[in-house]
Amino acid sequence: MRALSRLGWGVEVCGDGAQALQRWTDVRPDVVLLDLSLPGQDGLRVLEAARKGGLTTPVLILTARGTVGDKIIGLNSGADDYLPKPFDLDELEARVRALHRRHSESNAEPGSSPIPTGSLRYEPDSGAIYHGKQVLDLTPRELALLRTLLARPGHAVSKERLFELVFPGESNVQYEAIEVVVYRLRKKLIPTGAKLVTLRGLGYLLKVDT
User: Fold this and answer.
1) Is the pLDDT of residue 188 over 90?
2) CATH 3.40.50.2300, domain 2-107, yes or no
C-alpha cells in the first residue's frame, strides 16, 4: 500500500482479521481495502461482523479469487466493489477515489460543497486542497497531514496519530520526522492565513480563517 501512501492517503495495514476488525472499529477509516485471505478470521467474516456492528465504511475487496461466484458472495456480504489480483495500481487508486467520493456525497447535506474549512477546501474527487481557486503545492506527506487536520479544525491531533498517517508502516523513519513535515507545511500555509499550532503534550491543531 506504499503507492497509496505516496499519493497522500493515510494507510493502515493489519496483519490478521481480528486486528483488521478492531482497527476498523477504532479508527473508522474513509475506505477499507479488504483481502479475503486474512489469517485467523478471513475477510468475509470480518466484513460480515463489521456490517452487523453498524460500520458503513465503503469496502473494496482485493482477492486472488476471481470467479463470479466469489464476487457475488463478497458483494452480498456487504462489499461495495471487488478487484481481483493482480491489479493495476492506477485502477486501484481510481476505485478508491470513487468509493470515497460516493460515500462522502451520500453523507453530505444537500447543496454542501466538498469539505470546506475556512479559506481551505479539500476536494475528495481530485485529492487536492485548495486555497480559493488555487491548488496548494504540497508533497504527499504534507497532504496527508493537512487532510487529517482539516477533518478536525480547532481540535488537536496527537503527534503519534499524525506520524502513523504520514509515515504508515515505515519503521525505519525517526519519530521526529513528523516535526520536519509540520515545519514545511507551516511555511506553505502562511499565504492562506491558516495556522498550524503546536499544543505541548496534545499534538497539533489547525486554525483557519472563518
Assistant:
1) yes
2) yes
CA-wise closest residue to 185 among 133, 132, 131: 131
Annotation: CATH topology of 116-207: Arc Repressor Mutant, subunit A (1.10.10)
pLDDT tens digits, residue range 59-91? 888 877 655 666 677 677 788 888 888 777 878
* Whole-angstrom distance, CA of residue 43 vs CA of residue 174: 33
**pLDDT tens string 135-149:** 888 888 888 888 888
* Closest C-alpha to 51, from 84, 74, 19: 74
63 neighbors 102 (Cβ within 8 angstroms): no
What residue segments make up the domains of the chain, in order of their start? 2-107, 116-207
